[in-house]
Amino acid sequence: MMSRLNKHALDFDCTLKYFKETIDNANELSSKLLKIINFKNGCFFTLLPDDANFQCMYNFKNGGVLVQNPEEKYLISGRIASYSVIPTIRECLSKLILNKIKSNNNISCIFDDILRSSNQKLQMDLFRTYGLHYENEVYYQLVKQTISEDLIKKCLRKSNAFWHSLCVLTRANFKDIKNKELSLAKIDEVCLKSELIFVGAYDGEGYIFWEKNSFFLF
Q1: How far apart are CA 159 and CA 130, in angstroms?
Q2: Which of 19, 87, 117, 129 has the fewest CB atoms within 10 Å, i.e. the most exposed one?
Q3: What confidence score (pLDDT) does residue 195 get?
Q4: pLDDT of 81
Q5: CA dihedral 151, 156, 159, 163 (to 10 degrees)
Q6: In the predicted model, is pLDDT for residue 218 greater than 70?
Q7: What is the dihedral of CA 117, 170, 181, 28, to 10 degrees?
Q8: Is residue 83 over pLDDT 60?
Q9: d(Cα 211, Cα 114) in Å, to the nearest integer?
Q10: 154 near 126, Cβ under 8 Å?
């Protein structure tokens, strides 16, 4: 069981550089966030447990910031092989997001999914219930009435590509959405009303967060 996550402030300039590199040109939401958000109106931070390797805190592209899981051995074709499950903060983070959404009536949680297209027919159960799309781009929206810790973890996994993962907590109004279709104007609204944005980091082990000055994840 991972210990409680703690908030660690990050240097603005070097973190913004990584933020831009990891989301630039990934999809329409990512591109619009970089154009619309004034990141100086907030701060960057990461969430790590007490036993994290803080010497790696700014090695955003590499793993090893969390205590590594032990190797598991197995037999294949008469030979012993081994693997180690990558540690992650997703479970603890899901609890934090759940509590924040549950305590706010008008905040939605938007995840992107750059590995899938809205015209795909396989493995799209999550999209059929919680999906939105812009052209063929896939997004998932969780709100107070339907959100759960398990759903957050599923969306975090779906959003996790080897180089990119994005989630936005926004006060945008989605009541006028039809046929799950996002317009450019609605994507602009999502960006303009963003309160918290986070991207994947540490080779899947954690995330880097940007938080508006008036908003606090916890």
Answers
A1: 13
A2: 129
A3: 94
A4: 65
A5: -170
A6: no
A7: -50
A8: no
A9: 23
A10: yes
Best CA proximity match to 159, nearest among 8, 48, 30, 57: 30
CA atoms 23, 197, 149, 61: torsion sign: positive
In b/e form, how buried is each residue of 62-99, taking b as 16+ CB within 10 angstroms? ebebbeeeeeeeeeeeeeeeeeeeebbbbeebbeebbe
In the chain, what is the greatest distance between 2 CA atoms, to the nearest angstrom? 59
**Which region, left, alpha or beta, applies to residue 198 given φ > 0 means left and ψ of -120 to 50 means alpha?**
beta
d(CA 56, CA 101): 30
Quick one: tokens of 52? Answer: 């994290």
Q: Which of 66, 77, 3, 10 is nearest to 43 (CA)?
A: 10
Structure tokens at 74: 């197995």
Nearest of 196, 158, 160, 155 to residue 33 by alpha carbon: 196
Q: Identify the pLDDT of residue 67.
A: 86
Angle between helices 12-23 and 28-36 (to 10 degrees): 150
Identify whether the C-beta of residue 141 lies closer than 8 Å to the C-beta of residue 109.
yes
> Which residues touch 112 (CB under 8 Å, ≥6 apart)?
26, 27, 29, 30, 137, 138, 139, 159, 165, 166, 167
Judge whether 137 and 112 are in contact, CB under 8 Å: yes
Q: Is residue 49 pLDDT above 60, yes or no?
A: yes
Over range 184-209, report the average pLDDT.
96
**CA 47 to CA 29: how far, in whole Å?**
24
In tens, the pLDDT along 97-108 reads 999 999 988 899
More confident of the two residues 169 and 86: 169
